[in-house]
Write a structure and sequence with these properties.
CATH topology: Neuraminidase
Helix content: under 10%
Distance between the termini: 13 Å
Structural class: mainly beta
Radius of gyration: 18 Å
Number of helices: 1
CATH architecture: 6 Propeller
GO cellular component, one term: membrane
Number of strands: 26
Strand content: 35-45%
Catalytic activity: Hydrolysis of alpha-(2->3)-, alpha-(2->6)-, alpha-(2->8)- glycosidic linkages of terminal sialic acid residues in oligosaccharides, glycoproteins, glycolipids, colominic acid and synthetic substrates
CATH class: Mainly Beta
Shape: globular
Organism: Jiangella asiatica
Order of helices and strands: EEEEEEEEEEEEEEEEEEEEEEEEEEH
Strand order of the largest sheet: 1-2-26-25-24
GO molecular function: exo-alpha-sialidase activity
Pfam families: BNR_2
Length: 351
Amino acid sequence: MKRRTFLTGAAAGIGAALLPDAMRPVRARAQAGGMFEDIGQISAGHHQLPTIIATGPDTLTMVTQSRYPVATGVNVDKGAADIVTFRSLDGGRTWSPGGSLHEAGGASGDCGYASVVTMIGGRLTALYTVGPQNWEPADLVVHRRISDDGGLTWSEVSYPSVTSDHANGLPTNGGKGFTLPTGRIVLPGRMCLLYSDDRGESWTATPEFAETVETKAQPARQGLTALVPWRTRDKIGRMGRVRLGHRYAYRGTVTHDFGADTNLGFLRYDHRTLLMSVTRSNQLYIRRSVDEGRTWTDEKIITASAPSARYSDIAVTADGAIVVGYMSNHRVVANAAPLHVVRLDLDWLTS
């Protein structure tokens, strides 16, 4: 398996017992030409919008909504919801409860929503929004919390400012950020990007450029450019190239076939390779690009133990294992469902 250099710093933490309702790794398969392991279900059936990030060489943190049943007249995606974490200390093979990022206080509480995460100086930083049930974008308040132990515990809440000339200058519903060579921190936003030059104390939103609020972001191979794919309802994939040097510049849109039914997972594996997970017809696929997202190849289905899938995200460990966390399509509570995990390597994907 390919060994990768872990660049963002390791996070300390003490593992907790596995969830009582979680499954231990099942149907692990070492196949000719690579590795694929179906870890199986890791949570109960009330989670949505998972984001997974490497916080150490073998440590992974998954941040997700935990939704409550909704009352009549409440939008299922805008009802009461906590934001919680799950943690793995062994490269995604086993998972335990992590920390609570936001507590709504029950089914009559507020909606914790749209958490995006990034590593800043070896510390896990989460930016998310909180608003009333049936919120509109103008109702949402941006919150920030920081963890020194990979999401097991969190700092007190702070409220960073966001400068934006539109209502969608907010974190989007799931995704990871990165740091440019200049030190500028970039996060995916609703139809836009958010960036900070003061280590997350304040943020600026770019103009809107995406067609939907569901974006992801990763650095381009060279320069101060972000690659930003977004969910497209016409099943045709689009990816914007956004210059974020001293000033904002939109560098155009690539249109090609990576259309997804729901939000997608997106990650730079190394200087040459991008990975993307997408759901089509309730099945989850992973694919790669070696030309900066212009074309995608080697697609394989990875739904595995879940009969169907919706939202997903990708992380990579220091030894090159690709870990995909996703939400099954077996919606139980308020448009939420169990979380599942699979592990694979690049040899399996390309064989």
